[in-house]
Amino acid sequence: MRLFLSTLLAFLLSFFGLFAEKVQAQKKTLDKDMPGKIKTLQAERDKLLKRLAQVDAELADLTRPEWTLDLAKMKVPNAPVVGSILGENFKPEKVKLSPFGTLELEQGRSRLIIFLPIKAGQAIEGKSFEFGPDDKQIGKRPSIHVLILTEKLSRPKMQAFSSDYSLRLEFGKQQNDAVVGRIYLCLNDGGRSVIAGTFTLDLK
Fold first, then answer.
1. Confidence at residue 12, expressed as pLDDT on a 0 to 100 scale
2. pLDDT of 144 higher than 90
């Protein structure tokens, strides 16, 4: 019996020794091949991200409203606000009205701010605004400030407009603490910045 146990023990030790060597050899192979596989996967990921960016750009071109300074041609589409501002795609995620009458369209950390010619606390429902590029309504023409800040930009893009733009902005009736708005804005900035569409303004 003692001899049998000794033989069995020797066999098990030999078996597990060979198994451990095989595992170690496989580990070395994986360690050797892993950097190459990681680089291959990273390259494939980069290609997919680049293609995705190209698709996003193509979709943005298809949905981008027409740039024009002619108010008669500015027909607000019945779709969420979308466009391009200072060369960057712009699709506001939130629209709010400050107590001081500034309309703010936000996408991430980017902002488009319109200083509306209304008094602080004045109701916005039912109001409409139209300004052409040569409109000289002193004291009524709103200033427009733009801040574009995205991850791919090394520094933010900023610009202010007191003229050189066309704006059509309309607000509907208030319902359940919200107002539906419609906007068509074209900036004469050299890059043909334009946004157009509808939005919901939460008044809570």
1. 52
2. yes
